[in-house]
Each structure stands twice: as C-alpha cells, then as structure tokens.
TrEMBL record:
<comment type="similarity">
    <text>Belongs to the nitroreductase family.</text>
</comment>
<dbReference type="Pfam" id="PF00881">
    <property type="entry name" value="Nitroreductase"/>
</dbReference>
<protein>
    <submittedName>
        <fullName>Nitroreductase</fullName>
    </submittedName>
</protein>
<keyword id="KW-0560">Oxidoreductase</keyword>
<dbReference type="InterPro" id="IPR029479">
    <property type="entry name" value="Nitroreductase"/>
</dbReference>
<dbReference type="InterPro" id="IPR000415">
    <property type="entry name" value="Nitroreductase-like"/>
</dbReference>
<dbReference type="GO" id="GO:0016491">
    <property type="term" value="F:oxidoreductase activity"/>
</dbReference>
<feature type="domain" description="Nitroreductase">
    <location>
        <begin position="17"/>
        <end position="184"/>
    </location>
</feature>
C-alpha cells in the first residue's frame, strides 16, 4: 500500500480563495502538464490540450466568459482543459511512440484503428463523450500533480463553452471540458467537506 498516494487522495479539497500576489513559473506550469499527461485515455488517444491562462489580459478575458468567477483572475494560472473529438485517423500518430519504443508491434496499429473507427465514426455524441472523458482524466491528473506540489486547485464548469472557444480560438474538433484554477490558497478556505456514506455509493454485484 502506497500510503502517500492514499494520504493525497484523502486530502482532496477544492480551493475557493487564492493569494493573487503569488505566481507560478513557466517550468512549473510545464511540469504540471507533463504530469497530467500520464493520465490514461481510450486507445491512448491523448486527445487533449491544456491552455495555461496566465497573463492579466487573458485571465480577464476568461473570467468574462466564466461567470465572473474571481478565482479565474486570482489563481496563479487557470488551465482550459480541452478535449479533442475522438477519431481513428490520429491513431497511427498517437501510437507511434509505443511502436518506436519496441513493445507495440506495428501490425497491431490497424486493429486499434479499426476498433476506434467502429466506436467513433459517424457518432458525434460518442466522439464528444470521449473528448470530455479524456479531458476530465487529464484535469484529474493535473489536480493531483498540483496538490503534490503544495498548490490549491479548483475544477470549474461554471463557464460559457461557446465564449471560451471563441476567446481562445479552439478548433471545431475541440471542446472546452473544464477549467482548472491552480495557485496558492489563502488561510480563509473552508476545510474539507464530509462525504456521503460508503453504503450509499457502493453496490456489490
Ligand atoms: C466538474 C466540476 C465542476 C465544478 N465547477 C465549479 C465551479 O464552476 N466553481 C467553483 O467554485 N467550484 C466548482 N467545482 C468545485 C466543487 O464545488 C467542489 O469540488 C465540491 O464542492 C467538493 O468540494 P471538495 O473538492 O473541496 O471536496 C466543481 C467541481 C467539479 C468536479
């Protein structure tokens, strides 16, 4: 049992109030995203992108389409976690590293492509579900990485997806799935909220 991982899970808490005077250097932003990309995705699609909104101008633009939530401008950085609509065409590219590393036989790639095509082709709802799922796993990894660095985080769905797509030039095949604010919490934040009892949320079958 890795107690440090369990302790990190047990400490999960969303930050509401940030110290707006504290910033995060570029290298740390890169490291957060590097760690987030270890999160799993279907077929190893890695169909995500992370936009680190940090300049005062960009933060103000994001806050204007994010229900005017103060944490968007007060956190050191707010990531727009973008999911890419799932398609089979990108598979060879996304698997190229595993083939080059020598453990994935190149002959396997067409099989994965065919499976992804039958799952996603002509099925916009399922393509979008996968975009949201991948981005959510990525956001979760980002949150855990930030927590391990002693930073506070806020996942957010309080935003206008059309406005975010417009302001940050997302492509037609991209969905803004979540915002994740990251920064230094103030002392005034609430403690962790109690959880529903396990008996209410666990079923054995
Ligand atoms: C998908 C999702 C969307 C959320 N959206 C917002 C939001 O827009 N603004 C906000 O202040 N908190 C938001 N939260 C934070 C939740 O309110 C918070 O996680 C919840 O109250 C549980 O608190 P805890 O994370 O401290 O345990 C969101 C959380 C999730 C998972």
């Amino acid at each position: 049992m890795n107690t440090s991982v369990i302790e990190a899970i047990e400490r999960q808490k969303t930050t509401n109030l940030y110290d707006a005077s504290k910033s995060i250097p570029d290298d740390q932003v890169r490291e957060l995203v590097r760690l987030a990309t270890f999160s799993p995705t279907a077929f190893h699609l890695q169909n995500w992108r992370f936009i680190a909104v940090r300049s005062p101008e960009a933060k103000a633009r994001l806050r204007a389409v994010a229900a005017d939530q103060p944490k968007v401008t007060e956190a050191a950085v707010t990531f727009i976690v973008v999911g890419e609509l799932a398609v089979a065409d990108v598979m060879a590219d996304r698997l190229a590293g595993s083939v080059a590393a020598g453990f994935m036989p190149v002959e396997m790639v067409p099989g994965w492509e065919a499976a992804a095509k039958s799952l996603y082709f002509g099925k916009p709802q399922i393509q979008r579900d996968e975009a949201i799922r991948s981005a959510t796993f990525g956001a979760s990894g980002l949150i855990r990485a930030a927590q391990a660095m002693g930073l506070g985080t806020t996942p957010m769905i309080g935003f206008d997806p059309v406005g975010v797509s417009r302001e940050f030039s997302l492509s037609d095949n991209e969905v803004p799935a979540l915002l994740v604010a990251v920064g230094y919490p103030t002392e005034a934040n609430w403690p962790q909220k109690p959880r529903r009892p396990i008996s209410d949320v666990l079923a054995f079958a």
